[in-house]
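User: Run a structure prediction on this.
Assistant: Running it now.
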Amino acid sequence: MSGDSTEEVYETAPSGHLSTAMDGTIVKINATLLGWLGLRRDAVVGQLRFTDLLTIGGRLYYETHLAPSLRMQGAVSGIALELKRDDGGRIPVLVSSVVKYDEAGEPVLIRSTVFDAQIRRAYEEELLRGRQYAEQARQLAEVAQRDAEAAHRRADADRAQLQDALSVLQQALLPDRLPDVPGVETAAYYHTASSIQLGGDFYDVFAVDRQRWGFFLGDVCGKGPEAAAVTSLARYTLRAAALHDPGSALATLNAVLNERYATGDPRYCTAVFGTLRPDPATGQVAVAFASGGHPPPLLIRAEGTADFVSTSAGTLLGILPSGEFPPTQLVLRPGDTLLLYTDGLTDARVDEDEFYGEQALRTLALQHAGAPASELVEALSEVLTSLGVPLADDTALLALRACG
């Protein structure tokens, strides 16, 4: 039997790890973080404090905010800092730390996990360019509308340009394609309610490590460039926090959103975040997930049952500085499907007086029990496109089926 030892996993983890004494002296650090910094282990362990690795601004923030929070709360999550490289460069990171206590309740050690956040800046720069382009396109559309009576053809052309631009930007906020997950069939669909506004629904499936796959689906409040900014931040944050358990990952996103939008125009979202652990021997898939104010997933068993998973909905993400996101665990047997959806589906109007609703969703799902995930998603997409009343909200669907 072969496999990575605990020490090998620690040393070669995709994130940085270090432990410090309560005075900040580094007592242990993994090879990943040493590689980022360009430092030797003997030059760090017992020689430097954690603050020695930070920029001047980061050091001040650590001493005035992070360290006091650790002493009072025993843990902090998703703190944005910058590390200094040995060659003078800087690395933006997200840091989560927890205090270890001895049997007498005295603090003895601080353990920290460090996530490389360089891609975060690239996301934000890309999003800023996209927002600027969308704003320019919106202004063009407004001018075209005012001149519509005199230049109807020009207005139509400008609107088409806006739709094309927003379509491209919307696709940039979604994965190009879902990855191939061993033992799991995946299918997704995104329905845009408006061709001239950016939506705020999002989803993704990605590898966490050699045995687990992460997934999430969420719904940002509002539309337009502001909602797209929250979508980009939410996607990045959940991917970066995927090594934590689902509840902790949502707690990190909650803290990041609350910190970013605590003042000014408040922004929040709902989301389900979880992990898949396929078992090749049995064809079963162990699922662990947590919810932040999101509608419950629908579990469709191959033998012909469909029920909404009873789980705590948690709190809306970003509203409060902290929240509770209790975990839920279940097992998909071969042929079982877990369907995640945003409320644009259940809140879609069949007519002026009736919503599509959860019961109609359950009834349709029962007709596709045991069927491929793609068939279920296609059937739901046909429902959305065939409704006589225009949709008021976007809809995202993500189906996960154990295929043995």
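DSSP finds ten helices and 17 strands in the chain.
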